Amino acid sequence: MxxxxxxxxxxxxxxxxxxxxxxxxxxxxxxxxxxxxxxxDLLESNQFKLVGHDAGPYILTLSIAExxxxxxxxxxxxxxxxxxxxxxxxxxxxxxxxxxxxxxYYEAIRSSPPSKIQAIDVGRRALHxxxxxxxxxxxxxxxxxxxxxxxxxxxxxxxxxxxx
Length: 164
What we know:
Elements lengths: L13 E6 L9 H16 L3 E3 L7 E8 L2 E7 L5 E8 L1 H23 L2 H26 L3 E3 L1 H15 L3
Parallel strand pairs: 1-3
Antiparallel strand pairs: 2-6, 3-4, 4-5
C-alpha cells in the first residue's frame, strides 16, 4: 500500500464503477461532468472490500430503486458476488443541506470576500464528512471502506441525486 492508498494491484479495491442510467437524475452536461469526475477520483484511489470475501478487485454497479441505494458488487469475471441495499432516507437531509451550502459557496465565489468563502467551505466540508461517516456506518458489516473512499462514494451519491 502506498501513502495514497492501495496499489493498482491490490485486491481490496474497486477497478470499475457502473451507474444504472435508468435510475439516476435527469441528464445535464454539468451533472454528467460531476459524475465522471467522482468516478475518476474514486477509481484513482480507493480501499473497498466485501466482508467475508477476498474476490477483489471489484466491480461496483450503483443504482436506485424504491428509495434505496443498491450496491451490486461483482468480480473481475463479471459475476455478481453480493447486492446490498441501503435506505436513502438517512441521507436525504444531509444531501439537501449539502446542495444548499454548495449553492451558497458557488454564489459566494462570485462576489464575497475570502473570509466568507472560507467559512462556507468549512460548512460544506463538515456536511460532506457527516455524509461520509453515515455511509461508512451504513456499510459496516457488508463492505469495508476507508474514510477517503467513503468520501468519494458520498460525492458520487450526491452526483447521482444532483438535479443540475
